[in-house]
TrEMBL record:
Coiled coil: none annotated. The gene is cobA. Pfam families: TP_methylase. This is uroporphyrinogen-III C-methyltransferase. It comes from Staphylococcus shinii. NCBIfam families: cobA_cysG_Cterm, PRK06136.1. Residues 8-217 form the Tetrapyrrole methylase domain. The keyword Methyltransferase applies. It is an enzyme of class 2 (transferase). GO terms for molecular function: uroporphyrin-III C-methyltransferase activity. CDD domains: SUMT. Keywords: Methyltransferase, Porphyrin biosynthesis, S-adenosyl-L-methionine, Transferase. One of its GO terms (biological process) is methylation. Its EC number is 2.1.1.107. PANTHER family: S-ADENOSYL-L-METHIONINE-DEPENDENT UROPORPHYRINOGEN III METHYLTRANSFERASE, CHLOROPLASTIC (PTHR45790:SF3), SIROHEME SYNTHASE-RELATED (PTHR45790).
């Protein structure tokens, strides 16, 4: 097979949402990328680390509605590699944990296009850290099982509860819509009222946690109207060890900032504010040579969001 010259594709994990949880390599690649193909759960500020002239393309799938197919995404990645030296395929969390990275890697291999997988922090790890616990703990849980309630072609399969019944931890991805069925299956099969926590939008400005037990969690969730919000479900005895100070997250002190001024200073300030638990977006400068795809996204973000404060870096005194 004749191989056409191409650039290199990096299949990069963007982490759970908080830019301070990006790996150093992920940040470097985003800054160097000629083009970025990103998922819907990637924090828009993380995309603002890209060069202003770089193209960004939304290839994110929308749950429970018609969306772009994986084969189309593969084709777009291959096409980008034919045109650019450094291509970043940016995925939320870790691309190798229910991120379909293997399908993209195979598609690139078939075309003879070099690629590299760059791991990211997965949402289960971020959620456990927020709760002040470990997913495994000596004499409590010796293992952690990552599973999903969403399977190929929409098929629903029963969860394997063997490890959970032996004291280990179960982390369920993409299971929010099927939570009632999940809880019912686990309780019926185990007859144990396991502690459970659901972390929505973990590590982001809108993060929210609901914790309880299998017999109480459904009523607790129904009271919050969070059915379509992305979340991670964690079940197991380690949840009894969750630090009380983390059980009820208080978002009232968090603010939403829009930052203007010199781009390098604005980015530096944004990271500082994210480290303090806030949300930030850099105001796009229409006088700068931003790629139209970036300009369109950030302009829309500014319109959609309500900002508590606007910081002007040229006049800001730290």
């Amino acid at each position: 097979m004749h191989l056409v010259e191409s650039g290199k594709v990096y299949l990069v994990g963007a982490g759970p949402g908080d830019p301070t949880l990006l790996t150093r390599k992920a940040e470097q690649l985003i800054r160097c990328a000629d083009i970025i193909l990103y998922d819907r759960l990637v924090n828009p500020f993380i995309l603002q680390l890209a060069k202003p002239e770089s193209e960004i393309i939304d290839v994110g799938k929308r749950p429970y509605q018609k969306h772009i197919q994986q084969s189309e995404i593969n084709e777009q990645i291959i096409s980008a590699a034919r045109r650019h030296s450094c291509v970043v395929r940016l995925k939320g969390g870790d691309p190798a944990i229910f991120g379909r990275v293997q399908e993209e890697a195979v598609a690139l291999s078939v075309q003879g296009i070099p690629f590299e997988i760059v791991p990211g922090i997965t949402s289960a790890s971020a959620a456990a850290a927020k709760m002040g616990i470990g997913l495994t703990a000596r004499n409590v849980a010796k293992a952690i099982t990552f599973t999903t309630a969403s399977h190929c072609k929409g098929q629903v399969e029963a969860l394997d509860l063997h490890s959970l019944m032996h004291g280990d931890t179960l982390a369920i991805y993409m299971g929010i819509k099927r939570l009632p069925q999940i809880v019912k299956q686990i309780y019926q099969e185990t007859k144990i009222d396991f502690p459970i926590a659901i972390f929505y939008n973990v590590s982001t400005y809108h993060e929210q946690m609901i914790s309880g037990h299998l017999t109480t969690i459904i009523k607790q969730v129904e009271a919050q109207d969070l059915e379509m919000t992305p979340g991670i479900i964690i079940i197991g005895k380690v949840m009894d060890m969750a630090n009380e100070m983390f059980r009820n997250i208080d978002n009232t002190k968090r603010k939403n900032y829009l930052i203007s001024g010199k781009r390098s200073l604005a980015i530096e300030k944004a990271f500082e504010l994210y480290a303090a638990g806030h949300y930030c977006l850099i105001k796009i400068d229409s006088q700068q040579p931003y790629h139209k795809s970036q300009f369109k996204l950030y302009e829309q973000q500014e319109k959609d969001l309500e900002f508590d404060e606007h910081i002007f870096m040229d006049n800001y005194q730290s």
